[in-house]
């Protein structure tokens, strides 16, 4: 992880306070202050991330778009062809069927769960109490060779096969820089159900005054960010399900 060029006053003050005095809210406050300031994060309207993902020895270009009102788009370039891996316009979630290469709407349950994530931009910790979330400091653990604060984040429950399930994640914040370096959440369905999905974040770099992790690992897949653009010009139409698609099929 790159060392920040400057340390905020908040960090200097908290650095001399015993670790036992830290609270979950103080850790979250230090996180936002040390990565650009809460006001700057609250004023962020959208981001565009350009990255590469490693898959079976291949480097695949990836573009990620996220907006403050919950719209998302993940687009990859595979063998010279742009493919929408995931898109959500606030109402409809859709993906590309890799067998037919046609867009398909996600099922109703998956879409409703996605709607529950619309408040997560730019971070689920931003004004979390107003969102109805809870955060609990669980103690300290060593992760990725660093001492961390373990925070338990409980968000709006999700539906899994028609049953409401708790939506709990664990974030590990580096005790030196107050940034998350590991996140864990339980896989709810499929052959890996019950196991933990682990993501790592490192190599924090400054982008127009805000700090972002440029090295990510999600479920064992490495993603290297190349560029991040703040508040880019975005065409809302890119999130929408193609109206003229011959495969306007919605899953049951």
UniProtKB/TrEMBL annotation:
Q: Where is the signal peptide?
A: 1-21
Q: Which UniProt keywords apply?
A: Lipoprotein, Signal
- Superkingdom field: Bacteria
- Keyword Signal tagged: yes
State the name under which the record lists this protein.
Outer membrane lipoprotein-sorting protein
Q: Which organism is it from?
A: Aequorivita flava
Lineage, highest ranks first: Bacteria, Pseudomonadati, Bacteroidota, Flavobacteriia, Flavobacteriales
């Amino acid at each position: 992880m790159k060392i920040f060029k400057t340390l905020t006053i908040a960090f200097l003050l908290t650095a001399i306070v015993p670790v036992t005095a830290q609270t979950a809210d103080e850790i979250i406050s230090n996180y936002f202050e040390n990565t650009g300031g809460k006001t700057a994060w609250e004023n962020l309207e959208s981001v565009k991330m350009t990255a590469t993902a490693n898959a079976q020895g291949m480097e695949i270009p990836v573009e990620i778009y996220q907006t403050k009102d919950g719209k998302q788009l993940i687009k990859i370039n595979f063998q010279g062809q742009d493919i929408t891996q995931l898109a959500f316009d606030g109402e409809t979630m859709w993906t590309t069927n890799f067998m037919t290469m046609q867009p398909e709407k996600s099922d109703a349950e998956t879409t409703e769960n996605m709607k529950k994530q619309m408040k997560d931009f730019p971070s689920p910790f931003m004004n979390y109490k107003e969102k109805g979330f809870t955060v609990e400091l669980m103690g300290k653990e060593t992760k990725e060779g660093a001492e961390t604060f373990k925070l338990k984040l409980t968000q709006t429950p999700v539906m899994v096969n028609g049953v409401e399930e708790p939506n709990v994640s664990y974030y590990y914040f580096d005790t030196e820089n107050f940034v998350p370096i590991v996140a864990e959440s339980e896989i709810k369905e499929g052959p890996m159900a019950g196991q933990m999905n682990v993501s790592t974040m490192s190599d924090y770099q400054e982008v127009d005054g805000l700090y972002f992790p440029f090295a990510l690992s999600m479920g064992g897949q490495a993603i290297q960010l190349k560029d991040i653009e703040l508040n880019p010009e975005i065409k809302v139409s890119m999130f929408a399900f193609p109206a003229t698609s011959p495969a306007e099929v919605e899953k049951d």
